[in-house]
Amino acid sequence: xxxxxxxxxxxxxxxxxxxxxxxxxxxxxxxxxxxxxxxxxxxxxxxxxxxxxxxxxxxxxxxxxxxxxxxxxxxxxxxxxxxxxxxxxxxxxxxxxxxxxxxxxxxxxxxxxxxxxxxxxxxxxxxxxxxxxxxxxxxxxxxxxxxxxxxxxxxxxxxxxxxxxxxxxxxxxxxxxxxxxxxxxxxxxxxxxxxxxxxxxxxxxxxxxxxxxxxxxxxxxxxxxxxxxxxxxxxxxxxxxxxxxxxxxxxxxxxxxxxxxxxxxxxxxxxxxxxxxxxxxxxxxxxxxxxxxxxxxxxxxxxxxxxxxxxxxxxxxxxxxxxxxxxxxxxxxxxxxxxxxxxxxxxxxxxxxxxxxxxxxxxxxxxxxxxxxxxxxxxxxxxxxxxxxxxxxxxxxxxxxxxxxxxxxxxxxxxxxxxxxxxxxxxxxxxxxxxxxxxxxxxxxxxxxxxxxxxxxxxxxxxxxxxxxxxxxxxxxxxxxxxxxxxxxxxxxxxxxxxxxxxxxxxxxxxxxxxxxxxxxxxxxxxxxxxxxxxxxxxxxxxxxxxxxxxxxxxxxxxxxxxxxxxxxxxxxxxxxxxxxxxxxxxxxxxxxxxxxxxxxxxxxxxxxxxxxxxxxxxxxxxxxxxxxxxxxxxxxxxxxxxxxxxxxxxxxxxxxxxxxxxxxxxxxxxxxxxxxxxxxxxxxxxxxxxxxxxxxxxxxxxxxxxxxxxxxxxxxxxxxxxxx
Length: 725
What we know:
The chain is mainly beta. The chain has a domain at 362-542. 3% of the residues lie in helices and 60% in strands. The chain has a 27-stranded mixed β-barrel. Strands 1, 2, 3, 4, 5, 6, 7, 8, 9, 10, 11 and 12 form a twelve-stranded antiparallel beta sheet that branches. The longest helix has 21 residues, at 5-25. It is elongated, with a radius of gyration of 37 Å. The termini are far apart.
């Protein structure tokens, strides 16, 4: 088929333009007509080119391409309607729907550009830069230099979408500036003579401002400040500075100035190693009484080899209410721990030490124990021929305190177990063990006797039998399980001599979780003795879609009526209280759990706990918790209490959501605290406001009213404020 003259002309001109453009790079060219490409490869990067039509002026040494022009070099791609290249000046101009895509993904749009042949220097008219999916910079013109710096005149920066119904309306927020400089290498955005506008209204001016561009994950610099007021420290201002030290570590320094208590310096340091990680948080101040105050919260975890690792936790505060006063996290006990542990097969070894600081009103440092060391080992053999296995547990502990009892313990327990599955599907397990506890104690208080110092010990054999028999039924779309279960165990009476100080078994609660345990104490200082037995029944029905309903009920029997368990524990009589739970969760929108302990004489409730969650986070979600402990239902930690907690969360639209909650003391008929809040969030902005009122007293910190809000300009940082009365 013969080619027309027009086709021959387009082929020739495309070839000429290809050769002319290749002179920018390597001087070797080839071309194809219509949507064709040109490629050369020597020492410099290759240049790719395609266009619909090409003209070449030999006298002026210019090449002009029209229609769907695409030029690629060094990872940069230029698209335009028309491109002209002046070979003598090494200048390229482009007009009409111009876009330049950088290797990083940043895209620059313009009506007209004039660039050097390598795209690194030039000027741009009507520039529009898309830094990421949402963030944009626009201006009347720009100058580009070294391939990194883009200086934009009369610029506007914003990550906010413009309303689709009114494209001329102002975004939610934007920054206008006389000049904006974007450094693609350091990934920073600088402003000169800048003002922040909300809804098109100027609200803040600064002669200079800088922040990382949206592609930056971490970079040194000032973070958004925080200011506000509380009844504990008065008005305050905090200005954090973030230091990205290198790829593996960083630090944040936060000077805080308070009106009533003076300046505070808070700091955080984080570092990752090949073998682990470490994090340090702390603060220090000299308060209004010229007393030094501060706190530390540090953690480290490090691998030694495939079996062993070591770590530490360090938590201390100068005063019990220091962290609450200055707004730091404040648990009820601060725990410092140094440990090493190893995992090999079914065995586990750990050696550690503990130091505690109690933050409750009655806690005293002189009576708080120091544990150093605490050594533990647990080992288990592989199953033998009939499935039997042997266990070995070792425990060594040294506990001292400045005032009060000291205890040094060495315990060993050897066990043997034989599980058996019967022909009817019943599961039986026989357990035998022998435990030896040896103590050297001092100043242990005994009822009606003088304090004891010296050796104390016990030898506790244990025989136990566990049995359960699950009945399974498939009924169409439902799967049902009914499982009766029982446990019997025996140890000699008198397993808790007064000479042994109770340090690790003080907190105890009898419930459905430990009903079938051979020894219901959580530690080693107290042991369950005598003959005991438990029975129970579990039932559950499960649907194919994930919904289920389950229930459990049981009781325990103890042959001895002694003081092993305290009054109100539910185990102080021969027959224990009844314990159980009911859970109803038919689908993801409803979850109801009821846990109970009923008196063994009249079935009156001694402990009730109900928790219910209903609804969806996309519409309305309600969470309710009811707790009731009677005055004869346990230890001091779980004294008489009847409380109700209620929380409701509602999403009103794609951008607005709200919540409200309350904690109410039913026994005293008064609230403990309540609060409410709302959140607005879109692609460029977060506004979070909360109000809270508390009615309880925490040592020297009394009741408080608080108002908190947080203002976040996405891609810029965070502005937060807090107020309390």
